[in-house]
Amino acid sequence: MAGRPSxxxxxxxxxxxxxxxxxxxxxxxxxxxxxxxGTTFKESPAVKGDPEAHRVFLWLxxxxxxIQYVDGLDEQVINRYCMLVSQEQALAKMMDRMRxxxxxxxxxxxxxRIYESxxxxxxxxxxxxxxxxxxxxxxxxxxxGRIKAIPKQPEGPAKQSAMAQFMNRRAGGGHxx
Length: 177
Prior knowledge:
mainly alpha
């Protein structure tokens, strides 16, 4: 089981609390900035050649103009996402055609083959959708992905944890019991 991915330092600062020291945060912030290239992501030839993938790419490019951390390094995952959307739609069309073919087939063996094919395509559609959901989360394309990026606490004075309050009282820094 993998842990949660690290939050960007900007998000940690917005939350106003962290278990990391200022020195660790400064180091992480420098490291994050060194990973930001400032370049824009480009459309791959495969995406450009696929009308549906191309449409999705143009839509994403428009949306990502305002997000700082999406840049040239994200090119592969964005192009992969566009191709997966196109693949999902092509598989759905294929399933629809096979369902129409079933009505025209009279032989039981042929019907069984079509049903098996539909089951195989359905499995591929479900796997493609699962991959899309994971990428949508990473690319902030669904509510869950966006919600995860929002700080849980509003800015303001940081509240001490119960343990910190206890230690403070024990050290004589608080009111007696």
